[in-house]
Design a protein that fits this description.
The complex is a heterodimer of chains A (about 350) and B (about 210).
Chain A: E1 16-24, E2 29-32, E3 40-41, H1 44-47, E4 55-59, E5 67-72, E6 76-80, E7 85-89, E8 97-104, E9 107-116, E10 120-123, E11 131-132, E12 148-154, E13 162-167, E14 170-174, E15 182-184, E16 193-199, E17 206-211, E18 214-218, E19 226-228, E20 238-244, E21 252-257, E22 265-270, E23 278-279, E24 290-294, E25 303-307, E26 312-315, E27 323-324, E28 332-341, H2 342-345
Antiparallel strand pairs in A: 1-2, 1-28, 2-3, 4-5, 5-6, 6-7, 8-9, 9-10, 10-11, 12-13, 13-14, 14-15, 16-17, 17-18, 18-19, 20-21, 21-22, 22-23, 24-25, 25-26, 26-27
Chain B: E1 6-8, E2 11-15, E3 18-20, E4 24-26, E5 28-33, E6 36-40, E7 45-46, E8 58-67, E9 74-83, H1 91-96, E10 100-102, E11 105-108, H2 109-113, E12 120-127, E13 130-138, H3 139-145, H4 147-154, E14 163-168, E15 173-174, E16 178-184, E17 191-196
The chains are: A mainly beta (about 350), B mainly beta (about 210).
Amino acid sequence: MTPPTDKAFRLAQADQEVMCCAASVGHSVWFSHDLGESWLRAPTPTGGIYNESRCWCLATHPARPDEVWSGTDQGIYVWRQSLGRWNYMPSPMDGLHILKLAISPADPDFIVAGTRPAEIFVSRDGGRSWQCGALPIGSECWFINTPRVTSIQFDPKEPETLWVTIEIAGIFRSRDGGQNWELLVEGLRDPDVHNLVIMDDLGDRVILCSTEVGLHRSADNGASWEFQEVPAAGDLIYFRCMARRADQSGVIFMSIGDKPSGKTGVLLRSRDFGASWEKVELPGRVNTTIWWIFVNPEDPRLILCNSIFGEIFRSTDGGETWQHMDRFLGEIRDIVWQAVPRKVTGTSKNL
Amino acid sequence: MSIAFYLYQPHVYQAEDEVVTPDLMLTRLGVAVAGAIRPVSVERLTTAVVVPEAAGRCCGAPAAVVVGSSEGALITVGAVHADMRCLETDPDLALYAGAKVMSRFAWRLSDAAGHAKRVTLRLVEGQEPEGTERGNWNLSSLAAEHPELGDLLAGERTLQKGELIFFAADHFFTMEPWRQITLEHPDRRSLVHEYRTPGLEAPSTDGGPL
């Protein structure tokens, strides 16, 4: 299925600008206002953040187009495009690696953060105060020693239900906004879990889960999981990120590599809600595992993804074709884009 | 879970060539003194090697420190600092007033439990790098003073993840400028924490050059 054509491409709208952001481990956050062709950082003296910070994640919300949130190892920072600077936001997470941030689609003040060591912190007031979710999880784990959060998602149907993946511990779900948690690992071949795609289009809910050893599928809302063969993956087994195109099609993208810091990676595409997969033709050779794939309902056709070693790929046709951006940005952990009103970007002092 | 924590990053010697380095969020700190385990703010924890304290007011006792962890509790070496002026009259205030010093090197408690009579806590103090041994205590003698330590060594109690207890030796010493606290094991690399305790200094406001 090709992407829908009835929605105006945001790039063509005179009152909107696309702002792309890439979270770098060692170079703070990069910004692009030309769809990834060129990138700049906020300057250290006036930008509000040390520009060699380790920034692990980004989050945006369409109701707050002026803001970009970043989780770092120095705390939470919020970029305000109208000010052209980052502002540090005090939180109890200072000192932790803030690896994931998620903002509720239903409420931009409902924010969830995931850290290393693995804990979940929840704010209901736009980040002014936080509660710790007290995950029922061990303090140590095999191989990486310290468990860490790899993804956070709000349930598409239940606004108070949160889904969290943690390596190396499994999938956790809270039905009360993060106060109580249940572990959902029945049938998983490995608790080293990375990401989820939750779909309610086919009558019954289907959830896909990417793990260190392959893809799993649940048809009972996470109560149990079955391993799913993916022949298109070839010899690669390190299944990392998944993202469903932000429309009603069944198109999903999934990244696979030889290992997190490996030598190669591929991007797969499903056109049937994850039942079957095909390899996406990316220009050139991917230098390692693709770490993040970003889709945005503001325009399902503009999709960004990045390898952990700084390669950026862009599609402007819903993932049918891809361009390799010239610029490498070092170690990149997250990438987003946000539609920003030009009246906001026009007032920026720096970027 | 308390939202306050201290991020402890121990190097755990599990075997000769096996060191694991988990990051642990410590949320509940207790100090076992005088027959009771007293809660102390985790904000008092430090693994620093320079710990300024008020000269003439602070005293310190060497301690074995047990830390809860999901893969098995840890044991490390540390010191309980306290304000000697009120140690008898208001021990909670006295404990709050001083740092709780701990090493970033640790063993699994299970590796020490079987050797409790031969695992020795030792305090040397003086002027760096020379000092005088002020005392030594084996784990069994500490456990006799602190039944909770005995229960932990015997596996009859456990600490939850994020909890830790300092089991202090029975003497609070006025502190010398340099301290070396050691936990010695018959088969394992010793755990050593050396640190200095300079007196507090007020900021200079003499208008000198920056």
